[in-house]
Amino acid sequence: MIKKLILLTSLVSVTLFAQVKSNVEVPYISYEIKMGKGFDAVNANCLMCHSFGYIINQGPQSRDFWDKKINKMIKDFKAPIDAKNHKIILNYLYKHYGNGKLK
Ligand code: HEC
Fold it and tell me: What is the mean pLDDT of residues 25-38?
């Protein structure tokens, strides 16, 4: 029984090894979390459902875009975000991940 297990494990690792050896490229996307005023609010209000990368994956966007996204989270997904935090998060996202446009 133990011998069988060992054989099985080594088979599994051989397969894994073969996969790593082949030319598969795993995309690695790095993203920078910009610390600063407002990040605490993002941390407390946005990251219980998805990662930070999921948010800034959108790329630089307008203030209006971020405003609508926060509204979408509140309306569609029932994110418990009050008006005060909405504003703090919006300012944060626009400052660090904005494209300079209001609309
Ligand atoms: C209650 C859970 C929840 C909270 C809290 C939440 N989100 Fe989301 N968010 C979701 C879900 C679910 C999706 C995936 C929607 C989809 O795939 O269509 C999502 C997707 C997104 C997207 C991807 C674009 C899109 O429209 O789907 C962005 C950007 C985003 N959230 C931003 C935020 C921000 C900013 C906050 C904080 C203000 C936040 N989220 C808080 C649940 C949440």
Answer: 77
